[in-house]
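The authors assume throughout that readers already know how a fold can be written as discrete tokens. Each protein is reduced to its one-letter sequence and a matching series of backbone shape codes. I therefore recommend that a typical entry be quoted early in the introduction. For illustration, here is how one protein appears when written out as sequence plus structure tokens:
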Amino acid sequence: MRYFETWEQIGTRVAQAREARGLTQAQLSSSVGLDRTAIAKIERGRRSISSLELGQISNVLSLPLEWFITEPPQSVVSRRSDQLDTSPSTSLDLELERVSRDVELLLEIGGLPKEDSRDPSSIRSHSQAEDLATSVRTELGESAAIPNLQLTAERLGLYAFSFEMPAGTSDGAYVLLEGAGVAIINGSMPAGRRRFTLAHEIGHHVLSDAYSVDHSLFDDISGAHERLLNAFAIFLLMPRNVTVKLWGDAEGHVDPRGATISLAAYFGVSWTAACAHLLNLGLIDEDRRTILLSQPPTRADYIERALVFQEELIPPSLPPRYSAAVIGSYRRNKITSTRALELLHHTLTEDELPETYELPLEALTPEFNES
């Protein structure tokens, strides 16, 4: 961890965080009890800032104090440089940097295992996208629906977080660290779209893409690579052989809407994604897809069929094994309670933290010997 050496560097971080949170200088100054001119001078590096003032700013901007005084993880810096973007200009990118720092900490102290790096690769056609999805499912041992995609991603060394984001925020973002991948999912999106976005980020991870910010995965003008990753995502969630079989079992040729409702609920995908995939598989035609899109399912449709659409990645949502690693590191006295709560994004209170393990006397022996 490298600390900043100038007020200008700290001021830049204050400005980045403020802009990402959608606050003006006047709004931030009012919240922390400083003049707007003082905030302006701080951001330009023309005024020093006390620890108390910085602490107040960090509370208002919902970021740990160290975020303002230390350099971002090198992996994030280099990825941004590759993308010709040197500053976190959005809430999504800001959170990506924050959780990347957190994951790197747990990797360094042994709380999380370091995964072997995958060789960078690419896909150039829809058939290759489907083949990649099939190989990933084989690697995971998945032969049907994937009920918990967040936990499945962890098995691939990808730690996915979901947080509430302001309107207009991108769908997701991904960065490759040394020993793991990290993804941020815009938790403000509907449930099916959150799962689809995570499946898309899994595609970035298995291809060892260095860094990505996926602005809108359903935008017609998205690049060819992103469209192929969308194909990977839907085949990961709805494999061809299982989808075709279930369509037949549900007599989709007789009741296409009922069958589509069942498949969308079973695979945990949005109505739009399910209809598009059925079209691509040749199970429905374009006219039928148009009709289905005009007849989205209601709650009564699910109740009538005894179906439950399990929501996933409800914000704030942290990777299960990541959260367990935080608790384990705290119990082994590797991090403080304050740091543990920060790493858990305050989804627990201090009273809810378990007791730490008693530190054995032998662990202190090297310190005694050095004195």
